[in-house]
Amino acid sequence: MENKQDLRVIKTKRNIKNAFIEILLEKDFKEITVQNILDKALINRKTFYNHYMDKYDLADQMIQDFFDECTAFLDMRSQNFKNIDGFLDQVDSIYKEVFQQRDLILALWTIQTDNIDFYGSMESLFQSKYRQLFQNDKEKSGDIDFQAHLFSTFILGSLKYMLDSNKNYTAREVWNEVSSFCQTITSVSIHPDR
Where residue 76 falls among pLDDT bands split at 50, 70, 90? Predict the structure, then answer.
């Protein structure tokens, strides 16, 4: 009997989360009420409050679940790569996972309050992962904090563009775009007197 109840709870929570995602893709978080979620999920108020204190708690739990999953996935994929092909293959697996959760990520991306900042949390996660990659690399030079910032900005900007435009580039295609970008930038002469 306990398994059936657990399954019911899982289904109910999934239903609430899916309804919330749909609403977030249509309305600003500040405008959303618990009643909106109840109406979309076709549940009663008591059912909602059995699982969440309010919409903020729901958002917090969804973000925490995403970060737990994302961190575990990134930890599993983080390793020393012998060549660029190995690295690009791993990035492709991450892109695939991201696109499977496209609506969730786009919905959570819209939430920004004093206590909830999905973008800022993603930024911190990617910066931390970058620092971890090079913490024991004695040959790595330069300002690691600045590089971590550049890394997170590049990753998040690229992901946002791909998710918004629904264009799922491969890691090699992104690498080629970055190469083209660098070639364009380096072909521009910089004159100190201008």
Answer: low
- Rounded distance between C-alpha atoms, residue 135 and residue 128, angstroms: 10
* DSSP codes of every residue in 136-180: T-TT--S-HHHHHHHHHHHHHHHHHHHHHHT----HHHHHHHHHH
pLDDT, tens only, 25-45: 999 999 999 999 999 999 999
List the helix and strand counts (H, then E) for the chain: 9, 0
Query: CA 69 to CA 117: how far, in whole Å?
Result: 17
Whole-angstrom CA distances from 31 to 15, 23, 34, 96, 100 are 20, 10, 10, 32, 27
Q: Calculate the alpha carbon distances from 115 to 55, 101, 112, 120 in Å.
A: 13, 23, 8, 11
Which pair of structure tokens corresponds to residue 10? 């899982």
Nearest CA to 171 out of 75, 79, 99, 72 is that of 99
Tokens standing for residue 130? 């970058």
Which sign, positive or negative, has the C-alpha torsion 67, 159, 18, 121? positive
User: From the CB of residue 151, how many other CB atoms can be counted at a distance below 10 Å?
Assistant: 18
